[in-house]
Amino acid sequence: MEFTAEWHLERSRPEQLLSYLDLAQPFVGQINKLIARFRDVHFLCEHGSKPEALLPLRDALAFNLVKMSRWWSFDFCPRSILEMQAPRFLGYVKEHLQRSCNDEALYDVFTTQRYLHPGSPSDVLIVGRDPEPDLSRVLYGVDGQRRFRIGSETPDGSSLWHNSAYSDFAGAWLAARAVKARESGDREAARDASLAQAEHEQTRLWHQRYFHACCERHVITLYADAKNRLLLHKSAFGRMESETVINSLAFRVARFAVHSGMTVTDLIRETAPATSQQEDSLEIERRARTHVFTSVDETRQTVQLAVVDRLGSYRPRHCC
């Protein structure tokens, strides 16, 4: 399939790609898709024959990269992630903000705070309402301390905000489910929600380091560490999050093995400490393949699946 300008105009709009208020789509898949589409649209704007129609889409995708970084609380650096200087990238963001009052207001909360009392936990910008029918009265917002809040709409139409605040939207989303479970007396759901909150705090650390540079020779250790820590998660949301993180690291292991011309088994033997050498190469390959099918954008799946497929072309250097 050819991913033309027309294809992107039809299928790469942020509202089609991203799920901000419904976290059925985990972090890894959403951010990978957003980055892939921005890179492609930016390339077409620079090298395509008719870029004019794509410029607003490029700018909207740029803004959503900033928004997503705050939504999931991870460090975003245009130079390291996109190989683009920050002033140029922020120019695209500002072009978008001139077209959207709502996005400009959200950007202001996370930056200069011209429209509220700076740093005030009492000033809260509403960012959405929970899409689930049972939680339709739950509101989400960002306060002057740049933290996410949950609240409810009162009969007179005003907003009543809980005192607790969260570093990312997922924390607020999970808190809303915990409150609902407790209020309904559903002990099993309350236990699952409480576990999910604690487990998300562990997974959030992996989200925050997702783009941090590290020597690929350490990726086996990272994979083993994530697997040991995150596979202990028991809540439904915690398991979903942990699986996507582990699978993404498994793909990095597979990619490093291919780039090194080695089998995964030999890579583990030569680069990992003895405590990590029990990792099953077949499981790593399976997880890497799962990552491609579930967390890689469709514009990149063919190329990245080919990387995993190449694992079978290498023979072990040693007898097992």
Notes on the structure:
- This protein is of the alpha+beta class and 320 residues long.
- The chain contains 14 helices and four strands.
- It has helices at residues 5-11, 14-17, 27-47, 55-71, 78-82, 86-97, 101-110, 169-184, 187-208, 219-230, 236-259, 264-271, 281-295, 301-309, and strands at residues 124-129, 138-143, 148-153, 159-161.
- It has a four-stranded antiparallel beta sheet.
- A hairpin with a 5-residue loop joins strand 3 and strand 4.
- Helix 11 packs across helix 13 (281-295) and helix 13 packs antiparallel against helix 14.
- The longest helix is centred in the C-terminal third of the chain and has 24 residues, at 236-259.
- The chain is globular, with a radius of gyration of 22 Å.
- The two termini are 42 Å apart.
- The model has no long low-confidence stretch (mean pLDDT 91).
Itemize the secondary structure elements and their pairings.
Blueprint: H1 5-11, H2 14-17, H3 27-47, H4 55-71, H5 78-82, H6 86-97, H7 101-110, E1 124-129, E2 138-143, E3 148-153, E4 159-161, H8 169-184, H9 187-208, H10 219-230, H11 236-259, H12 264-271, H13 281-295, H14 301-309
Antiparallel strand pairs: 1-2, 2-3, 3-4
